[in-house]
Amino acid sequence: MISKKVDLEQLEESKRGHASTYSTRYFTESVPKYEIPESGMPANAAYQLVKDEVSLDGNPALNLSSFVTTWMEPEVDKLIMENINKNFIDHFQYPQTEVVHERVVNMLGRLFNAPEETTFTGTATIGSSEAIMLGLLAHKWTWKKRRQAGGKSYDKPNIVFGADVHVCWDKFAKYFDVEARIIPMEPDCYTITAETVAERIDDNTICVGAILGTTFTGGADPIKEISALLTEIKETKGWDIPIHVDAASGGFITPFANPELEWDFRLPQVKSINVSGHKYGLVYPGLGWLVFRDHSDPPEDLIFYVNYLGDEMPTYTLNFSKGGAMILAQYYNLLRFGREGYTGIAMNLLENARYLAKRLADSGKFEMLNAANLLPIVTAKLKEPVNYTVFDLSHKLRERGWILPAYTLPPNAESIAILRMVVKENFSRDMADMLFDDIMNACEILEGTKTKVIVPRRSVREGHHVT
Q1: Nearest to 14 by CA among 27, 53, 47, 22
Q2: Assuming Cys at both sites, which of 136, 144, 199, 421 could form a disulfide with 378, CB separation 3.0 to 4.6 Å?
Q3: In whole angstroms, what is the distance from residue 420 CA to residue 398 CA?
């Protein structure tokens, strides 16, 4: 009883502001980890406990591993919080959010050069993984219906893509029972080619996957050449094999920084494109977009209609509920930046990434696999011989707060281990210099030529070191 009385007194005192959050008993007991506690705690204590625990996470500003946006403007932060309680799927209750959604789809269809003679369509998703699966499902269904109409078997569908794809492509093949014909990487070739595609396609191929910005190296598959191959195959053999372009990383960079590059709906066999709003669309996670070349590309059989939210509405998603706030955030960005603003951001990203790549190459310690040639992604491997690995270097840089992933490439290039640096909007030229200096310091420590990192302290007068 005494303990309970003291607890109540502490709680009341905390409410009156006579005690700090850290003086309550909740900071002298273990935090519940495996079972829901019998009783709750004050809001300020719960907030502080969770906040303090996640302070062990990495700093998003120093995370060059993730492609995902980690910073947005204060105005859009406010807009998100004002709309974070809206369920996008509930069009009856939130009709204007659906109107905004349709506007964004229209903007993206035109950004990706959908032909004027077609009526393109699309949808928001919770990320590019869902968008890819929806796109590939549509192509599988179209292939199946075409085979049925011709009286042919449809029990052995296959899909062709490279080992440079995101894991969601492998998931699609396994989850939806489609044979994956994977084109391996080679030590001197990190993307697929039209020739390697030609070796694997047949009349059971539902789709060819092409990547604009691979996860492994930041490169891009030769989409124009692959489309030309499939156009010829269609004319000579009658196989109408579509391309799905995974533009998760490149879809918000290439149209602005390299608009003359033909990779989108300007190519006749490109039937669907996904892009991640939460990557270079500059929106927090999770938001993806899927755009079809024509409204007939997603078969009507895959569109469901529900009436239990107040009105009958179509739905073509794997996930039903999702927040509407990020869709509004995407619209904010499109209004806020426009083509000019997105172009400026893309060019800044590329300049900073290329600056970092040049400094790394000039150091003599690295061989560049990708020096931000198309996207603001830098990938490099260590020049041999060295007595440490990129994995050692990644761990050493983590001591300074930097998060750089180290990994090996897929078969047949698994002998190559690399570092990847994804340059995002909040990565400045000064940060590039700081990262380079820390990489050089880490290399010297691992080489044994330096025993510790020396961080000079600056005096009030800029440029003068205190010794």
Answers
A1: 22
A2: 421
A3: 14
Strand partners, 421: 378
Would you say the pTM of this structure is higher than 0.85?
yes
Nearest-angstrom CA–CA distance, 22 and 17: 12
Closest C-alpha among 204, 206, 208, 207 to residue 195:
208
Listed in order, the ranges of the chain carrying CATH 4.10.280.50 are 2-57
DSSP category for residue 205: E
One-character DSSP codes across 279-327:
TTT---SS-EEEEESSTTSS-GGG-EEE-TTSS-EEE--SS---BSHHH
Amino acid, res. 196: T
Class at the top of the CATH hierarchy for domain 2-57: few secondary structures
Q: Write down the architecture of domain 78-333 according to CATH.
A: 3-Layer(aba) Sandwich (3.40)
Question: What pLDDT band is residue 467 in, cutting at 50, 70 and 90?
Answer: very low
Which residue shows structure tokens 């002298």?
A: 28
Cα(143)–Cα(134) distance, integer angstroms: 14
Contact 126, 106 (CB under 8 A): no
Q: Which two tokens stand for residue 226?
A: 């692959």
State residue 124 phi and psi, 5-degree precision.
-80, 150
206, 143 Cβ separation under 8 angstroms: yes
- CB-based contact 380:369 (threshold 8 Å): yes
- Whole-angstrom CA distances from 51 to 31, 55, 284, 319, 405 are 13, 6, 19, 29, 25
User: Mind listing the pLDDT tens digit for each residue in 105-122?
Assistant: 999 999 999 998 889 999
Mean pLDDT calculated for residue range 282-304: 91
